[in-house]
Amino acid sequence: MVVEKDVETSAQAGEIDEIAALEAREDEKAKTLQSQTGGALERYINSFSAINFSFVLQCSWEAAAATFQFALSNGGPASVAYGSIFAGIGTTLIATSLAEMASMDPTVGAQYRWSATFAPKYNRFFGLMQGWITVFAWICSCTSNPSLVSNIIVGLAIFNNPDYVPKRWHVTLIMWAITIFPFAANFWFRKLLTPLEAVGAFIHVTFFFASIITLAVLAEKSTVHYVFHTLTNDVSGWQNSVVAWGIGLLTVTYPLTGFDGVLHMTDEVKKCRTRVPRSMITSVVLNAVMQSSYMITVLFTIGNVDVVSSDFLPIIQVYYQATGSKPATNLFVAMIGLIVFISFFNVFASVSRLLWAFSRDNGLPFSPVFAKVHPKLKLPINALILVACCLCLLALINIGSSAAFNAFISLPALALYISYFFPILFIFFRRISPSHPTPVPWGPFKLGMYGPFINLGAMLYIVFIVIWMPFPTFLPVTGLNMNYAGPLIGAVIVGALCDWVISGRKRFQVPVARHRPDFEM
Hints:
Blueprint: H1 2-12, H2 18-34, H3 47-58, H4 60-67, H5 69-73, H6 76-104, H7 111-118, H8 123-160, H9 168-185, H10 189-218, H11 224-229, H12 241-248, H13 250-253, H14 272-300, H15 305-309, H16 314-323, H17 326-360, H18 367-370, H19 381-394, H20 397-400, H21 404-432, H22 451-468, H23 485-507
């Protein structure tokens, strides 16, 4: 194995790599144990690829560019400018809290496994409930990528052909077509991973600077008062300034979610106890800085706000007013779509591994089917097929609702934040409880005395954000413009409770952390 070669090389150099040695022993045990549940994955992702995986998966400034129309109607510039900074700090607290747990117990199951491990009681119940929420959150998050790309394609089609009138089913067909690529590519994902992420990271960074420089040099400038003191609360129907500002946060909070995607690739990351935490925190910090810088630049160079806000995809008019060139506008917007598309490959791989891990622990009905790993490809083929089917079904929402795009953005954000909350809550109580008989099995990344404060800050941020996610973006609320994120999350929770009562409490196996010595910082 590659891991064994790493350990051998380290020993020859006179060094003892305890983490790599432990990982090699664990992999040997995992092969034996997982052969009974369908097979095991293989480690091949190195440190650079692990960081690139999260960095490209989030693609935060691109996602914010494609969704900032929500903030134009609610909150306006003040929501985007201050919200970007607020979201960056809050998401970093969450990522740091989860990174500490990833260092203790690096596992594909991540959130549901940690909830089952650290819950004070009813471990199996909380593990199963967390598993359903996390799997649902990631399937919805996976749906948001083709939704963003399809809206960019339709927006550019309207921009270049003003007579084109898009139908809702057009977007659904485009989403289906887009889903084919990462599904097929996952069969050769190992060979495609490094070059694809390298290209993605290059475009992600290059066009970030190109966009900021182009807009800063060519666009008409907004005033400082407009960017930092304009709070919009009279467009969407929400008159309360606080509510409008809170709903507008969706634009800047949604793009920073998904940093835990690399967690669900843990079984394929070498030296995962140090590399996965480093990847998560690095990705969040870099993407938060890039998103804040980009969105503030857009606000200073937005041009005619009425023209921008009336466009199907407002970011198109921001570039067009600045450059006055259709080819240049097409290039910049197409690159945004390309990065989101490349990110889709990573998201698709991540959610398939999560679904496979949950099935391996008998979290789903018919778990043995989805827990299988192809012996030659080393991939969870059945889990990949299930994810693709779920995406195609969710894409049908476009046909029935004009608010589908809003649902594809707010739903994954709401579900992911809920999935982050419970493991952080449980580890927070565990670390401040002096009477617990079992000490916390700290890993090489440990927050120490700052841990309780970071955990508490992360939870407060999550609660605040989750309050606003289910709100409809426009009033009065109708069946077409309603935000279905809240009811859908409620339906998943009810469904998980039913599963627990019917068979889940007997079927689900509480994951047990792999044996490991304690590591100090």
